[in-house]
Amino acid sequence: MRDDFSKEGSADTGRLNLDEPWERRYWAEFFGVTEMALSEAAEVVGSQAESLRKHFRAPPKMAR
């Protein structure tokens, strides 16, 4: 997701930035898991939203 909201353009919804607390909270809620579970899964499958969606078997809706 885009961190600098003063710049125009779409957010990167394909890659998670787990260094940002607000983004960790957003994606943990999105996948219905804890932030710890999200971080552990990202270490295994990477930080691509699609990889994490498959890992958590979440429906293929990428919302923002």
Task: Explain this structure.
The protein has 64 residues and is mostly helical. The protein has one domain. Helix content is 47%, strand content 0%. The chain is built from three helices and no strands. It has helices at residues 21-31, 35-45, 49-56. Helix 1 packs across helix 2 (35-45). The longest helix has 11 residues, at 21-31. It is globular, with a radius of gyration of 11 Å. 6% of the residues are buried. The model has no long low-confidence stretch (mean pLDDT 80).
Summarize the model shown.
The protein is mainly alpha-helical and 64 residues long. The chain is built from 3 helices and no strands.
Structural class call reads mainly alpha
Arithmetic mean of pLDDT: 80
Q: What characteristic shape results from the CA principal axes?
A: globular
Detail the poorly predicted runs.
Answer: none
**End-to-end distance, in Å?**
10 Å
Radius of gyration: 11 Å
Q: Kindly state the number of beta strands.
A: 0
Write the layout of secondary structure elements.
Blueprint: H1 21-31, H2 35-45, H3 49-56
Helix pairs in contact: 1-2
